[in-house]
Amino acid sequence: MRRPSSILFGPEDRPPPAVTFVSGLQQVGLMSMYLLYPALIAKAANAPPEAASAMVSLTLVALAIGAILQVIPMGPFGSGQLCHPVPSIVYFVPSLLAAKTGGLPLVLGMTILAGLLEMGLSRALRRLRPVFPPEIVGIVILLVGIASGMVGLRIAFGDVQTGAISRVELVIGMVTLALMVGLNIWGKGAWRIACVLVGMVAGYAASVAFGTLSPTDLAAIGHAEVFAFPKFGGFSWSFDMAMAIPFAVAAVAATLKAIGNITTLQKANDADWVRADMPQVSRGVLADGLGTVISGVLGGQGLNSGTPGVGLAAATGVLSRRVVYPIAVILFLLAFLPKLGALFYLMPRMVAGAALIFAASFIIVNGIQVMTSRLLDSRKTLLIGMALMAGLVVDAQPQILRLLPEQWQPVLGTSLVLGTVIALALNLIFRMGMRRTVSLTVPLGPIDSDRIEQFLRESGEAWGARADVIERAKFNLVQSIETIVEGCDPEDALEVEATFDEFYLDIRVSYRGPLLELPDRRPTNEEIMETEEGHRRLAGFMLRRFADRVSSTYRSGRSTVTFHFDH
Amino acid sequence: MTLEEQKAGSVTILEVAGRIDSASSPSLHERVGALIAQGSMPLLLDLGKVEYISSAGFRVLLLLARQAGKAGGRFALCALTPKVKQLFDLGGFLDLLPIANTREEGIAEAQ
Q1: What is the CATH topology of the domain spanning B2-110?
Q2: Are A298 and A61 in contact (CB under 8 A)?
Q3: Which of A243, A300, A387, A416 could share a disulfide with A59, CB 3.0–4.6 Å?
């Protein structure tokens, strides 16, 4: 592993205390706009301002715990990367739905279920890679961005429920958005980093000055306590099967986003990065899901690793996991300030709308980048196009949804759910015929290594397989044939079969004879030098370590050894 | 596999090229073993042109290192390509044998 010159402090490094604190403060500042989500969810549930304030405080407590869980590895939890959670936009849209139909208890109950699902998914990530290729990850992120942007537009410009907007509100909204955009594009240093915060503060100030934030609203903020312990246990939890699909899709989206963020930081830390460290990713997704479960149990909103924070860490070069300590401490202290919750709850709608539109723009582009990160063949092109149309039709032509069976209409009736379900289904269908297999017979006698390597090299070129994967497969194939011929006394020729799919390469070697041993413990040097058995065990040990998975079977006198390589 | 013997001061350098597998490792064992027996040490094995090394090759390297140790001489390797270095790492041999990054470093350390 080689650290890029742009990285000032890697995960293991100990930056000076001032750098650690300022980095933590910036990360919390960047997170602040997401505290809008729990407040808006509470508002959608028609909860009183105190409940909204409590929800913001409890989300902050969960965020502090979730940040430590993610960044400081403990047992099976935590990636060890600086990708702490934020109140997530992926849970925001389904939470709004749940809030409207079953109030806050349904939001919290379904949040716990979604977190548990993400924890479950973390255990099967390697096997699920073909189900969640980058095209689907990108579509989900893009649809999340579009959905949140639509919410922002509706909040800002009003709909049937909220009524028309006044000219003053429109000007405040435009100025707020312009300030955020302007500082982000032309601002420097702290102004750029804090562009959303500055825009929101300016929007609030203008709302107070022009009277769109009423004296009653201001009084509610004034009445909120300056310091108070968060009210734990003031909520109940409920569950509804009709909400299962939107929250399951959100859990999948959260999983995909966590994978993306952890992988981004792995790449940022290592100039020689080739592929994701999946055990680390898996621990990170497990911690991400647990953070959401804890938030749901405490009374907060669903959490998910935040992309802007990852971007900030990569941009400043401060990736030290020590930064999480000031982050957790600041978040925890903010949880004891109810005025903060009240302030977010009473956010003027144009300010909230501007912040959502601003954030959605980045998420939309992030989705497009992920979607197009690989060469798009006709399969991927059709999948992306059709899934996007399915997602957009919900808002553009909702009457088409009436073609669906009546009981499915509410379940599939959001752009995120319908688009993701269609993308997943098309991916499974389009994968048909992708698997390609070639075979080779290796006769007994002197081993022609060049011919064996040529067989894999040419096949790999024809498939467009990655060179590093083919190199590893070549070693395993030649070494296994050498060991089998010399140590297993095969009765006749060896049969080799290589199966390639976009996501894996399987090499199967079968022969008539005893099974090749693939130990998971290295033999001692004495064993290797003194006995043929020790030498063969070394070969088996190396074969096991070079492949991502190995398996072997013995049936009716015929042995088959399979080496699996992720691609 | 081909072997080419060179001298740099008191250091005997054997440049190995090609594949060290079960077919070629006996001749490597024989040739290097004879040099150690003759006392041609310090001995540096330049593996910069090696494309592949199998478990049979690693076994021979262990045997040669033991033989050199018994003879009281220095036996080292140098110039591993990234691909071969990965195999050394995989088999747990990186810390077992003295390995220099380049031939020049190997000669300097051996002298």
Answers
A1: Transcription Regulator spoIIAA (3.30.750)
A2: yes
A3: A300
